[in-house]
Amino acid sequence: MRTQILSLLIFAFPAMAAADSWDYEYDASLNNYYGYTDYAKNYNKLHKQNNFNSSLNLFGRASYEFNADYKTSLIGYFMADSAKAVENYNQGKWGEEFYLLTETPFGDVSMGQDSNVAYNFAVGAPNIGAYHINNTELVNFITNPNWYKKGHKAAYKTLNSTYINTDGASLKANYITPEYAGIKFGATYIPKTYSQSGLVAKQAEYKGEDAYVLGAYGGWDILDYELETSLGFADYDKNDREYSLGFSIYHKGWTLGSSYRKTETGANDYRLNRDTFFDAYREGRAYNLGLSYTFGPLTTGVAYFDSKAEKTRNRDKIISFSNKYQYNKHTAFSLTVAHLKSAGEDANIRNNSKGYAFIFGLELSL
Known about the structure:
Order of helices and strands: HEEEEEHEEEEEEEEEEEEE
Strand content: over 45%
Strand order of the largest sheet: 1-2-3-4-5-8-9-10-11-12-13-14-15-16-17-18
Distance between the termini: 50 Å
Helix content: under 10%
Mean pLDDT: 87
Shape: globular
Number of helices: 2
């Protein structure tokens, strides 16, 4: 047997080296923003009104194609962000994803730092340029006391996304089936759910540390309409369960999308922290709705996000009007006007926030 394996390696490696099957991809972007925040009267003295933010995003992919059916890729993504003047919550000052992906006729398998399948499949309200209504960059310019992350300290008193992002980019294994009639399914196993880019706090109590995630995606062209749908389910730490669904419809420049997420714990599970409710997102719901239109180099759109904790009065309401002008292949300008109303667990002014943000952006890419 050893002789057969050795013979296979002797013949296989020269063939691999001789074959011109390597492919490389890379990309880089630098997003720069200035935001002026007009807080409601009671909050003006607590927070800065002028904020700058820049983020550098790097992407690389090295792929080897064995034949027309089999390909393996090493994929890396790195983000470095300037210091958050408001709250250092959105992945902190840095973040990364690094994983190995193998594509076969029997499905795709990935292992490493990556998002789960439900998150990767998810569709909903459309994004306008680099601005997102989910896990929104708005909190770089206007404080939301319900979302906080700095170092190993985390407090998510409401959900910050309608997509299942509790595990962030923690180490995991993903499997995605081949697509059939526009439909594909996926499954994720996560040995340890904590991640710098996720929602889990290290001080939270759970029955376990691992998680399972299931996802489904459907995409079809129907009478000149492009329809996408997604479903997700997660069981975190043998303690929390999450559900998500979403849709998006595109037609002649118009995109309409919406998504919903629900989280819950069972009667016999470890419950929320009753002292500070830093993990109140574990029993809550969130939804978004958005509409955008693209004509030539300009994309404009409106979006609404609503997130509520079921056991407390914590709630977030965000409405945004976003615009992006693609000046050329490498340069884009953006303007976003957004309003945030954040209600805390009590009437303490430091646990609440309200105001408008006016954000001007310069987005540069290779």
